[in-house]
Amino acid sequence: MSAKVDERVYDEIEALEAILIEDLVVKHEDGVPKIIETVIHPSTADNIDQQFVCITLEVRLTPDYPDSSPEVFLRNPRGLDDQLLSIINTKIREMLNINLGNPVIFELIELVREFLTQSNLPSGQCVICLHGFTQGDVFIKTQCYHHFHSHCLSKHLIAGKKYYQEELDKLPNWQQVQAPAYQQTCPVCRCLVAFDVETLKKAPPPVDSLTAPPFHLTAELKALQQRMADLLARQVARGGVVGMGDDGPPPLTITTPSDNEEPKVSTSGTQDVKVEAAGGARPGSSTSSDGPASPASPNRASYKGPFRGFNRRGKPGRRGRGGR
Ligand SMILES: [Zn+2]
Ligand SMILES: [Zn+2]
Asked: Distance between CA atoms of 265 and 282, rounded to whole angstroms?
């Protein structure tokens, strides 16, 4: 049986629940409170649009807490880089030492909140332009807590829609009709997002981009581009590239070296050889070459969905092998 929990723990949890209400999660083990968890945001007078960072604080109570320090973990940091995380971790250790013997969770929450309030500007880079976020930048936070300069995100979304349209135009009409509508996605995690591009477009370019030296495609960069193109070709030939699916987030598309071969004539005389996979086959569903041989095996694997062109950029317009 578990040891009796210190009364102070129940008092502390009761107080925390009164303050944080549904933002507090208390997990029990063997009927006693064990883990206390809360997502902490900076203090911005409840203006959620102005919260650019957040983190989950997890406190694991030791059996004799508060006479011994609890274990504290920071999870799911958003908008905070490793350097900031290391600073806050140090401050947490100090706080635990000072408060040894006393309930400390509320102090920890306040400590982290204060730190987030001071750091309420995303650290790290905008993944689109690779510049940081500085004073004067106009930037935006997605629902998934990823940050971009508004200017960069508008360019990204405009380019994404244009690319979608170009690929769509390559498809025959019947496939165009079936294709899912264009949907904006987060460039980092591919969560669906919805932004008004016209509003984003009005934002000025990132401050750092104004002083950055002009871009030149140097011989070194050209060599890098070539290396990356070779690498991609090798990945396609050997087994896997991440492509676009016919719905939802992009799945992993498995390709095999035999995808590059023309269909072989069947010697079995089976008419089924030329039968295509069902039209709705998902790209991920067509996989390995080492399954048992079947009459349809020369045709197996190829994805026939509306986004073929997305996966086969080297051969635009190429239709399924063995198709009609
Ligand atoms: Zn940017
Ligand atoms: Zn995201």
From this structure: 25
